[in-house]
Amino acid sequence: MVAVTTNVGRDGKEPGAANVLKLGKAFRYGILGLVGIFFIIPILASARFSFLGNNNTITISAYTQLFSTPQFWSTLFLSVKIGLGTVLLTLALLIPTVVWIHLRVPKLKRVFESISLLPLVIPSVVVTLGVITSFKSLPNIIMGTPVILALEYVILALPYSYRTFDSAVQAIDLKTLVDAGQSLGAGWIKLLRFVVLPNLRSGLLGAAILAFAFCLGEFAVASLLSFTTFPVFLVQVGQVAASQAVALSLIALLFTWMPLAVIIIIFGQRNASSKKKTVSLATTIEQEETTGIA
Amino acid sequence: MASSTNVEDSAQSRTGGASPPSPAGLRPKRGRRRWHNGIGTVPFLVYLGLFLVIPAISVVVTAFQSGAGTFTLSNFNEAVHGVYLKSFINSIQLSFAAAIVATVVGVLASLAVCASSNRIVRALVSSGSAVFANTGGVPLAFSFIATVGNFGVITKLLTDAGFNPYDHGFSLYSVLGLTIVYQYFLIPLMVLIMIPPIEALRKEWVDASSSLGATRAQFWRWVGIPLLAPPILAAFIVLFTDAFAAYATAEALTSGTIALVPIQLGALISGNVLAGQTNLGDALGAGMIAIVLVAGFLYAYVQRKASKWLR
Question: Is there a smaller number of Cβ atoms within 10 Å at the N or the C end of chain A?
Answer without folding.
Answer: N
